[in-house]
Amino acid sequence: xxxxxxxxxxxxxxxxxxxxxxxxxxxxxxxxxxxxxxxxxxxxxxxxxxxxxxxxxxxxxxxxxxxxxxxxxxxxxxxxxxxxxxxxxxxxxxxxxxxxxxxxxxxxxxxxxxxxxxxxxxxxxxxxx
Length: 129
What we know:
- This protein is an all-alpha fold and 129 residues long.
- It has one domain.
- The protein has five helices and no strands.
- Helix 1 packs antiparallel against helix 2 (34-51).
- The model has no long low-confidence stretch (mean pLDDT 93).
């Protein structure tokens, strides 16, 4: 069941990306290895992807929303499994697992297309060019 509007998803993505990047220091697991850099790199990817998505809060509007949601799901799987894939589960795994599951759930519950008002405004702007 998809109930999250794309605009809200986009706002969450900006917050989520920033939190991911800061999480090693917020949650005190910044040891300099994979446990630190996986969320930092994925957070940067989330921000870049959000900036490039064709929806209400995207800037460059190059990635379709359905592709964005597929990428979110894949990012969530990698993030959730990263403690075991990269061998740092004995040090920390909870933040990675929680952030990963959150990304998967958000991708499965967000509308696949932006709102009708957004599509109408974009179509109107393109005809004026």
